[in-house]
Design goal:
The protein has 13 helices and 4 strands. The protein has 312 residues and is mainly α. The chain has a 4-stranded antiparallel sheet, with helices on one face.
């Protein structure tokens, strides 16, 4: 009887450990492999009662990974550092801050481990709950980006304020008070010296192309978009954005300013994404430092049911 109970407990614990270790995509939980091996050996060689000791330790380590792993600080990770240049990889780099904030590989379009996160985030931030609502939001973002004139954003370093419209059709300007750290970050990103009192970030609204790419990756991960549709959306968005800016630095300026302006209320995960933006802007391993901005991007013919605004 004791052997049967120990075998069931050991199997459940090892199964939970394997699932958590695989899902976390971290090296640390796999270091508990000797405990799993000890459980198996004690079950085979006996006495069975001793299997509970490594099983309890393995269960405690697995639970700790669930807690600690989810709090891993933002970090630059890539699924394939030696991957060839491609339009999909370039597009994924545009939205890299969102994945870097989660310490997840920035260069994977579909990421099954993030299904639950995508469901929660898309519903909380956009009200997206299915394919239809996803396509509606994508089309709305696309139309907002392509309507009216460009929206400029003004950073007053002396007054520590940021001022501008989130998008060209916004009825009024928004003013955001900046912390000392945010002022320092914006000076570094824009290259403004201490003697510069203010700067303007032109056409900042195009950073929202990263939001369209994030929605596309979420739609692909949740299987709301086919691979052909996802590829079409990524290619159209990437080609459009590449024409608007001349460098990754210009995107970094717009992303920083636009993110501060759009998420002034500091919602869930704000600090993590802000930290990730700093990594993308300044870390030598960042795709914003390594990928050529002006690389040739592939255009693909449309096949499928994406919003009409993206097909013209």
């Amino acid at each position: 009887m004791l052997t049967a109970v120990a075998a069931i407990a050991g199997a459940l614990t090892i199964g939970a450990w394997i699932l958590v270790s695989w899902g976390s995509q971290r090296r640390q939980p796999w270091l508990m492999a000797p405990l799993a091996l000890a459980v198996v050996l004690l079950l085979v060689l006996g006495p069975a009662g001793w299997t509970f000791a490594p099983a309890v330790l393995l269960a405690a380590g697995t639970f700790a990974e669930l807690v600690v792993g989810s709090r891993e600080p933002p970090g630059l990770h890539t699924a394939d550092p030696d991957a060839a240049l491609s339009t999909e990889r370039w597009a994924a780099a545009v939205a890299a801050p969102f994945r870097t904030a989660l310490s997840e590989p920035w260069d994977e379009i579909e990421r099954p481990q993030l299904r639950r996160r995508y469901r929660r985030a898309l519903e909380r931030e956009w009200g997206v709950v299915d394919r239809a609502s996803l396509l509606a939001v994508v089309e709305q973002l696309w139309e907002e980006l392509h309507s009216g004139e460009d929206a400029d954003l003004y950073v007053d370093f002396t007054a520590a304020t940021l001022r501008g419209r989130p998008h060209p059709d916004a009825p009024r300007e928004r003013v955001v008070r900046l912390s000392a750290e945010q002022v320092a970050r914006l000076r570094a990103v824009t290259g403004a010296g201490e003697e510069t009192p203010a700067v303007a970030i032109a056409a900042h609204q195009w950073w929202r192309s990263a939001q369209i790419i994030r929605l596309a990756c979420g739609g692909a991960t949740l299987e709301w978009l086919s691979r052909v549709e996802t590829r079409c959306l990524l290619h159209r968005t990437a080609a459009d954005l590449q024409r608007r800016y001349t460098s990754w630095q210009q995107l970094a300026e717009a992303f920083h300013g636009g993110y501060l302006l759009t998420y002034a209320q500091r919602g869930p995960g704000w600090e993590r994404t802000w930290t990730a933006l700093g990594l993308l802007a300044f870390d030598p391993a960042s795709p914003w430092q390594r990928l050529p901005w002006d690389m040739p991007l592939e255009r693909v013919p449309y096949e499928g049911g994406l919003p009409g605004a993206l097909l013209s």
